[in-house]
Amino acid sequence: MITVVGTGTGAPVPADVLAGAALVVGGRRHLDAVRVPDGAERVVLGPLAPALDTVAEYVGKELPVVVLASGDPGFFGIVRVLAERFGSGLLDVRPGVSSVAAAFARIGLPWDDAVVVSAHGRELRTAVNVCRARPKVAVLTGPGAGPAELGAAVPRDRVLVVASALGDPERERVERVTPAQAAARDWGTAVSVVLCLDEARALGAVRTVAGVPGAPAGWALAEDAFAHRDSMITKFEVRALALARLGPRLGDLVWDVGAGSGSVAVECARLGAAVVAVEKAADGVERIRANARAHGVDVDVVHGSAPQALEDLAGDPDAVFVGGGGRELPAVVAACARRARRTVVVAMAALDRVPAARAALTGAGFTCDGVLLQASRLAPLPGDVTRLAATNPVFLLWGVRTPAPSEGVVQ
User: Fold this and answer.
1) Nearest C-alpha neighbor of 210 from the set 128, 300, 113, 349
2) 100-139: pLDDT as tens digits
3) At the N or C end, where does the chain have fewer CB atoms within 10 A?
4) How far apart are CA 7 and CA 69, in angstroms?
């Protein structure tokens, strides 16, 4: 049997668990905090492979092994690796309080509505995008992905709660800082977790399902769900296919370029993505912000004209939607294609612009496809009868980068 004990957030290791151990494995600070039995081998966790090979030797001899871990070892912890190698039936897991639970407890907030994302050994961009999209996020940090790096990238209106050395009566610190303050400091190696909060929404509503919010009840919303000018809005039939090709999800960054009313931006944010909307008209900028507020989502609105406005946008997007048109369209599509990690979707009313937009995508290494969408909606007529009312045809073009970046869904 391999006994996995969660410690480090105030829970002591039971003496009887250690007493019969032939092998004790853990981080240096965990091992230094316990009395390893005389005669037991002590292995400090560094690279996992050698430690797991040593555990396998003891398991093969049917000798008891104890693994010490931080907090709840089944929560982004070593239980996954041990179960994959030795099978879950061989594990006796004794969880402690996770660093996430401890951090929220220290500041008196519930966390059933928090999204938890690990940046330990992973790309920081996913954690940043989740922080941009959600009001209550816990980030498990790691080398190169700590409070300073997070503070340099998250929205300025967020508050970061940096919890260090949780459970250590002498070293524990829980500090509220602005992103700028976090970015300006060297936090060392004792950080347990960072909470990223929009404090106006940090308490949250009562939840039935914990963690990541589910998908919205519907998408491709009707045009009257958004404020718009003179029907200048991406129609819901076009928006439905555009969303299917963009594939917005939690952890993604999406650009809506030439956003107009921001209907695509808002829908992508409702589906969990972090979103930047670029719009050149001042009244359009305010309209997008109003639509985002009305739907309760975060959209970062940039006032400027593409392609110039794209140059200063931080972070490469996973997906880009290009609306509108004009003579600059090929240059805009080319600029988006240079930055997009996965896909670019372009909506055009003028068929003449399709070849240039397609050439911009294929020239950037994208596999390109498209469709002309022509929809006729039911419309009432006098006498309780119905006719079909045609909407303006729109050409939707999309390019998919090949080979696509290998990225997993946030878990």
Assistant:
1) 113
2) 999 999 999 999 999 999 998 888 999 999 999 999 999 9
3) C
4) 6
Contacts of 172 (CB under 8 A, 6+ apart): 163, 164, 165, 166
How many angstroms separate the CA atoms of 330 and 352, rounded?
12
84 CB neighbour count, 10 Å cutoff = 10
Cα 282 from chain centroid? 30
Q: Please say if the pLDDT value at position 410 is more than 50.
A: no
Written as one letter, the residue type at 389 is A
Name residues whose C-beta falls within 8 Å of residue 107's C-beta, 6 or more positions apart in sequence. Answer: 161, 174, 176, 195
How far apart (Å, rounded) are the C-alpha atoms in residues 275 and 72? 33
Amino acid identity of residue 44, one-letter, is V
* pTM of the model as a whole: 0.89
Dist CA 115 CA 16 (whole Å): 36
Report which residue type is found at 165: A
Residue of 226, 388, 185 whose CA lies nearest to 194: 185
The beta-strand segments (E) located in 178-312 are 191-197, 253-257, 274-279, 300-303
113 vs 95: CA distance, rounded Å: 22
Q: How many CB atoms lie within 10 A of CB 304?
A: 15
For residue 24, give the nearest of 44, 6, 8 by alpha carbon: 44
3-state SS assignment for residue 219: coil
